[in-house]
Amino acid sequence: MSDLGELYQTLILDHNKKPRNFGALDGATHRAEGHNPLCGDRLTVYLKLDGDRVVDVRFAGSGCAISKASASLMTTVVKGKTRAEVEHLYRRFHDTVTTDATAAVDTADLGKLAVFAGVREYPSRVKCASLSWHTLKGALEDTALVSTE
Ligand code: ZN
User: Fold this and answer.
1) Distance 127 CA to ligand 1 centre (A)
2) How far, in Å, from the CA of 67 to the mean position of ligand 1?
3) 100 CA to middle of ligand 1, Å?
4) At how many degrees (to 10) do helices 65-78 and 126-140 cross?
5) What spacing in Å lies between the alpha carbon of 69 and ligand 1's midpoint?
6) Region 123-132 average pLDDT
7) Between 32 and 146, where is the model more confident?
8) Helices and strands of the chain, counted as H and E runs
9) Threshold 0.85, pTM exceeds
């Protein structure tokens, strides 16, 4: 297994065991529910925006280890970011996990999210990893219900 693959496994286990920012958010200004019918993952993303900035973000729901770990890591990364920064990260994350596994990807600006490039080795799990990001985007755009289908 590659180094990235090993990092990926470690991160998934850690965030699945101790999800960060888990549970409903009081005073959320935006929220959306996401569903990945392929796996059965369901989660809700709560956002609190102050002007253009995400001042708080939490998630709740149930799903597989990958969907949960991805949501957990996402909350730690987007907190404090502006709407434009979050949308940039969304696109970068999406591009990274949907690039063919044999192709090189530039993950230099992704920080910890770079680990999710490892999901490309498991194509059936890509929707698990991206569900929280689709749901986050839905919340920002006031789309209440998001499905990966
Ligand atoms: Zn899943």
Assistant:
1) 7
2) 5
3) 19
4) 40
5) 10
6) 94
7) 32
8) 4, 4
9) yes
Angle, in degrees to the nearest 10, between helices 3-17 and 65-78: 90
Supply the pLDDT for residue 86: 96
**Residue 87 CA to ligand 1 centre (angstroms):** 23
Around ion ligand 1, residues with a beta carbon closer than 5 Å are 39, 41, 64, 67, 128
CA 50–ligand 1 middle distance (angstroms): 31
pLDDT score recorded for residue 4: 67
- In the structure encoding, which two tokens stand for residue 86, read together? 């979050």
| E strand or H helix at 34 | strand 30-36
Q: Each residue of 79-102: pLDDT tens digit?
A: 999 999 999 999 999 999 998 888
What is the predicted pLDDT for the residue at 2? 64
Distance 16 CA to ligand 1 centre (A): 12
| Residue 8 pLDDT greater than 60, yes or no | yes
Tally of CA atoms within 13 A in the half-sphere of 54 that contains its CB? 27
The answer to whether the beta carbons of residues 41 and 67 sit under 8 Å apart is yes
Rounded Cα distance, 46 and 30, in Å: 6
How many Å lie between the centroid of ligand 1 and the Cα of residue 144? Answer: 20
